[in-house]
Amino acid sequence: MPGTVEKKLADLGIALPAPAAPVANYVGFVRSGNLLVVSGQLCFDPEGKLVAQGKLGGAVSIEDGQKAARACAINVLAQLRVALGDLDKVQRVVRLGGFINATPDFLETPKVMNGASDLMVTAFGDRGRHARTTIGVAVLPMDAAVEVEGMFEVS
Fold first, then answer.
1. d(C-alpha 116, C-alpha 72), whole Å
2. Residue percentage of the chain with pLDDT more than 70
3. Could you tell me the CA-to-CA distances from 60 to 31, 43, 99, 112, 145 in Å, in that order?
4. What is the pLDDT of residue 120?
5. Is the pLDDT of residue 1 over 80?
6. Cβ distance 44 to 147 under 8 Å?
7. How far apart are the first and last CA of the chain?
8. C-alpha count within 13 angstroms, C-beta hemisphere, residue 10
9. What are phi and psi of 86, to 5 degrees?
10. pTM for the complete prediction?
């Protein structure tokens, strides 16, 4: 039976997909004590298509970038559910890292990453407030617009 966090997500119309399998020599998440680190997740929708492809500051708008970051966050949550069985075991969202596929002159990466951050705060309330790094990068796998990783305190 889904817990409180998954019920909030369902109320938002969000169903967590099966997480994507790693495509190289890494795992989707690692737990060490009460910390769980989720590998970078691309902006796949539930059908496995990229929500946004290309560069922010180029063909991808800030709004589409925010949607892509939100999709990444949903995929991070899907990895968490597999790792924990219940998202209510998340005690704190400690940190999110965002990688934004951007042109060299694009300066709005924090606005794009808010798509992921806002979802974490909506899902977890004050436990969702987190430290964050947002980095503009030259390219991401499959030319995805956004990739998000996370670190969580769990029980």
1. 7
2. 99
3. 34, 13, 14, 11, 8
4. 98
5. no
6. no
7. 18
8. 8
9. -155, 120
10. 0.97
Distance CA 110, CA 133 (A): 9
Single-letter amino acid, residue 79: Q
**Which amino acid belongs to residue 100?**
I
Q: What is the Cα–Cα distance from 81 to 137, expressed in whole angstroms?
A: 28
Would you say how long the chain is, in residues?
A: 155
Buried b (16+ CB within 10 A) or exposed e, 96-129: bbbbbbbeeebebbebbbbbbbebbebbbeebbe
3-state secondary structure the chain: CCCHHHHHHHHCCCCCCCCCCCCCCCCCEEEECCEEEEEEEECECCCCCECCECCECCCECHHHHHHHHHHHHHHHHHHHHHHHCCHHHEEEEEEEEEEEEECCCCCCHHHHHHHHHHHHHHHHHHHHCCEEEEEEECCCHHHECEEEEEEEEEC
Q: Which residues contact 83 (CB under 8 A, 6 or more apart)?
A: 28, 29, 31, 36, 38, 154
Pairing between β-strand 90-101 and β-strand 35-42 as defined by DSSP bridges: unpaired
Homologous superfamily in CATH for domain 36-154: RutC-like (3.30.1330.40)
